[in-house]
Automatic annotation (TrEMBL), chain B:
<feature type="transmembrane region" description="Helical">
    <location>
        <begin position="304"/>
        <end position="323"/>
    </location>
</feature>
<keyword id="KW-0812">Transmembrane</keyword>
<feature type="transmembrane region" description="Helical">
    <location>
        <begin position="264"/>
        <end position="292"/>
    </location>
</feature>
<keyword id="KW-1003">Cell membrane</keyword>
<keyword id="KW-0472">Membrane</keyword>
<feature type="transmembrane region" description="Helical">
    <location>
        <begin position="103"/>
        <end position="126"/>
    </location>
</feature>
<feature type="transmembrane region" description="Helical">
    <location>
        <begin position="132"/>
        <end position="152"/>
    </location>
</feature>
<protein>
    <recommendedName>
        <fullName>Autoinducer 2 import system permease protein LsrD</fullName>
    </recommendedName>
</protein>
<feature type="transmembrane region" description="Helical">
    <location>
        <begin position="173"/>
        <end position="194"/>
    </location>
</feature>
<dbReference type="InterPro" id="IPR001851">
    <property type="entry name" value="ABC_transp_permease"/>
</dbReference>
<keyword id="KW-0997">Cell inner membrane</keyword>
<feature type="transmembrane region" description="Helical">
    <location>
        <begin position="26"/>
        <end position="44"/>
    </location>
</feature>
<dbReference type="Pfam" id="PF02653">
    <property type="entry name" value="BPD_transp_2"/>
</dbReference>
<feature type="transmembrane region" description="Helical">
    <location>
        <begin position="64"/>
        <end position="91"/>
    </location>
</feature>
<keyword id="KW-1133">Transmembrane helix</keyword>
<keyword id="KW-0813">Transport</keyword>
Length: 508, 328
């Protein structure tokens, strides 16, 4: 353990860069985190706030720039190295050993021991001491699996203190807590600060941020908007700072759908316990419906529910006027619904299989006679649709994993366009995709709508939803909270609705 | 062919990472090289090896393992695993032997096969709908099945003298045993199902990425259950085949067979992690192990070394698979 060098600045980032699969997540960000303060990182989904937090905690390594801790330049390649400098992270997904007791988890890897023998009494004493330091306690013998999430977080904090952490990065710690629990956590954070711990607080709950933060850094598209004292900031000033650049010209012109066009998808009263409820909407032929909201608001869950990927508890789904019972994705495919899932790598594509094999996988019936695959027809159909989505047909026989993110995503589109669906649901259609491919995908979505398809676009990039959709629904906490069309279809209204500040709610 | 087993795709465009390419190439062609090397070696070292009598004998002797391994290849590719084929093999033989007198030979053999299919279906249900880990599910069912086989035979060796019972196992056509034909037929059918049909595509998808497969409208559980059923069916066919050849049913006939089967599949280069593999590889894998067995016999080497050699070969195959995956 190194002693902290003097100086008020605990962590200084100078012009740090980070790219993921060719996409910039952070560009030239400068931030100063003062010692024994709570420093909040805010921004839209994908603005780079979590990435910055993880960079400081050693989860990711920066591609460029300088990171200084206690006045020394550092280059962490793992969280373990950051821990040596007293830095640890409380991640969104907790990393506790669920089947073991609280005290075992707290001291995991730093047990008091003589040789290989644990010194239980000493650990008890040290646990009490830690609890005192932290200002709260958790039953030392409880099995972690039986604890509520809020208590699990406390265990994580105790664990951080047991490792003598002097800086804790907390990534959306209040997201899954009840209001009361969140308030408790904020109190703990204040208390830790008063005892000299520095906290980096990554959150999209602006009220929480304003309640505890000393300094606030606002990020947008991976770049710094501003960084400074929290005094004087309000929810509105932060939202304004987080807003994107003026609506980008990168979006193609949308053709409005005819008001009397037939409704191709209608859902009524969809509910799935713990995920969403009371979801009803219609999408007309030629219309692109956007669904916006924060991560975790239930957007993806609704898409999966409609597609049969998750079981619905209630609701009615009507495609082209016919009520459909959808119990599994196969039923949805038969009903004419296609869904491009959120993660193409885990849910969309067989990465080691060829482009060709992926493109025909969902519609094998189209390229076979009595279950025998017609190779020639398969090739012809696949090449046709690959050409349409803009994938070089020379790549048809290579494994998907060798393609760029953009070509992988286009392959996913080709897969679902081999046979035209009535409804296309695209969840994060341009995630991890280069700018050129983004434009191709936007053009494709618009032309599919223009040909009469009903398209649903879900995206964490607000600009994308606004740029593509004729109409936008905003979800918050599993419900549709507002609908935006015409003049209410703007960033401010949508963002306010998503963040639940009062002005936005009126927009519906 | 458009599946991952094609050599051209198994070498990803990994310019600047030559080690990956080399490892993948070894994994891809290792079985072919090993098979040819052993074949040539034995041809030179043994006078008897390259006679039709010996080679046909090797084929016939490997038929039981070969039949089960061909079906097992589809099972492994779909992401399944079956430790019960040895016990199922014994049960089917025992049932056929037991039923020979009351039912007559043809029907008894069919009932034996049906017993195998039933075990396979049960395994399929346990491992999919039942959500039980395949290793545990099939290990448990193998213990139960072995117990049932003991009840059927009452612990004795059942000798069958019903006329015609031994026709399947002893019969020949054009100097080649029925068993050999049956094995060939199994290999061709399994290979064709895997490579030419929509079913084969679903099998690959179910093992390669079950979630993506499900979201493509494939009923992954159904596909996997069907491969378990196929594995059970194959064990049944192999069981009655051997029972017919020796005209006996015996509860412990298949001891260790599941390991031979898995070894042959893995040595061929089919991945135990699912999603990749081919039936022709398994055929070569079965034959490689059979040739080694034959070679030790012909060259009169102490069989103790045979075990060590086989274990080492299997280890090498699995290690190659693991390493070539890790580096991607």
């Amino acid at each position: 353990m190194r002693e902290p060098a003097g100086g008020a600045d605990h962590v200084v980032a100078r012009s740090v860069h980070k790219r993921f699969a060719g996409v910039a997540a952070l560009r030239a960000v400068d931030v100063v985190v003062r010692r024994a303060t709570i420093h909040a990182l805010v921004g839209e989904n994908g603005a780079g706030k979590s990435t910055l937090g993880r960079l400081i905690a050693g989860v990711h390594a920066a591609d460029g720039g300088v990171l200084e801790v206690d006045g020394r330049p550092v280059r962490y390649s793992s969280p373990r190295e950051a821990l040596v400098d007293g830095i640890t992270i409380l991640a969104q997904e907790l990393t506790l050993v669920e089947q073991r007791s609280v005290i075992e988890n707290v001291f995991l890897g730093v047990e008091e021991r003589t040789g290989a023998v644990l010194r239980r009494r000493e650990m008890r004493a040290r646990y009490r001491q830690l609890s005192e330091e932290a200002g709260f306690t958790v039953d030392a013998d409880a099995e972690v699996a039986t604890l509520r999430l809020a208590d699990k977080q406390k265990v994580e904090i105790l664990r951080a203190l047991a490792r003598r952490a002097r800086l804790i990065v907390m990534d959306e710690p209040t997201a899954a807590l009840t209001t009361e629990e969140a308030q408790q956590l904020l109190a703990i954070m204040r208390d830790l600060r008063s005892r000299g711990t520095t906290i980096i607080f990554v959150s999209h709950f602006l009220e929480d941020v304003l309640a505890v933060a000393d300094d606030i850094t606002v990020l947008r598209d991976g770049a710094l908007v501003r960084s400074g004292p929290a005094t004087g900031e309000t929810v509105d000033s932060l939202v304004t700072a987080m807003l994107g650049r003026p609506t980008d010209t990168a979006f193609p012109r949308k053709q409005p759908a005819a008001a009397d066009a037939p409704v191709r998808l209608s859902v009524q009263g969809l509910r799935r316990a713990g995920s969403f409820s009371d979801i009803s909407f219609e999408v007309r032929s030629g219309e692109i419906l956007g669904i916006a909201g924060l991560v975790g608001a239930g957007r993806t869950e609704v898409a999966r529910g409609i597609f049969g990927a998750d079981r619905l508890d209630a609701g009615r789904i009507v495609v082209d006027g016919v009520a459909r019972r959808i119990r599994r994705p196969r039923d949805a495919v038969r009903a004419g619904i296609a869904m491009l899932p959120e993660s193409r790598k885990d849910q969309g594509l067989l990465m080691d299989t060829t482009v060709l094999g992926n493109v025909t996988l969902a519609h094998l019936g189209e390229v076979s006679n009595r279950s025998i695959i017609d190779r020639r027809r398969e090739r012809r159909r696949a090449l046709d649709v690959l050409t349409e989505v803009g994938v070089d047909t020379a790549k048809a026989r290579v494994a998907v994993t060798t393609l760029s993110g953009g070509n992988q995503q286009k392959t996913l589109f080709a897969k679902w366009l081999l046979k035209r669906p009535a409804v296309l649901i695209a969840d994060e259609p341009t995630r991890g995709v280069d700018v050129g491919s983004k434009r191709v995908i936007y053009d494709l979505l618009l032309s599919l709508a223009a040909d009469g398809m009903s398209v649903v676009v879900i995206s964490s990039e607000l600009e994308e939803v606004l740029g593509l959709a004729h109409r936008v629904l905003v979800m918050r906490e599993g419900r549709i909270v507002s609908e935006h069309v015409g003049s209410s279809l703007n960033q401010e209204a949508v963002l306010h609705a998503a963040f639940a500040s009062t002005e936005g709610a009126a927009a519906s | 062919m458009t599946l991952v087993t094609e050599p051209e795709q198994a070498v990803p465009t990994a310019a600047g990472r030559p080690r990956v390419v080399r490892l993948s190439a070894v994994r891809e062609y290792g079985i072919v090289v090993a098979f040819l090397a052993v074949f040539v070696f034995l041809s030179i070292r043994s006078e008897v090896f390259l006679t039709s009598g010996n080679l046909l004998n090797v084929l016939e002797q490997s038929a039981a393992v070969g039949i089960i391994a061909c079906a097992g290849t589809l099972l492994l590719i779909s992401g399944g695993f079956d430790l019960s084929v040895g016990a199922t093999f014994a049960l089917s033989g025992a049932v056929a032997a037991k039923m020979a007198e009351p039912l007559g030979a043809p029907l008894a053999l069919l009932v034996g096969i049906a017993a195998g299919l039933a075990v396979g279906l049960l395994n399929g249900v346990l491992a999919t709908v039942g959500r039980i880990n395949p290793l545990v599910a099939t290990l448990s069912s193998s213990i139960v099945v072995a117990g049932v086989a003991l009840i059927v035979t009452e612990g004795f060796l059942i000798s069958v003298d019903t006329p015609g019972f031994d026709r399947l196992g002893q019969g020949e056509l054009f100097g080649i045993s029925y068993a050999t034909y049956l094995w060939g037929a199994f290999a061709v059918l399994c290979g064709a199902a895997l490579n030419l049909t929509t079913y084969g595509r679903r099998v690959f998808a179910a093992g390669g990425n079950p979630e993506a497969a499900r979201l493509s409208g494939i009923r992954v559980d159904l596909v996997r259950a069907s491969t378990y059923a196929l594995s059970g069916l194959a064990a049944g066919v192999a069981g009655v085949l051997v029972a017919s050849r020796v005209s006996t049913g015996q509860a412990d006939a298949g001891t260790g067979m599941e390991m031979q089967v898995i070894a042959a599949i893995v040595v061929g280069g089919t991945s135990i992690w699912g999603g990749q593999g081919a039936v022709w590889r398994t055929v070569l894998g079965v034959l490689l192990l059979a040739l080694i067995d034959n070679g030790f016999n012909l060259l009169q080497v102490d069989p103790i070394y045979q075990q060590i050699l086989q274990g080492a070969i299997i280890l090498a195959a699995v290690a190659l698979d693991a390493w070539s995956r890790q580096r991607r």
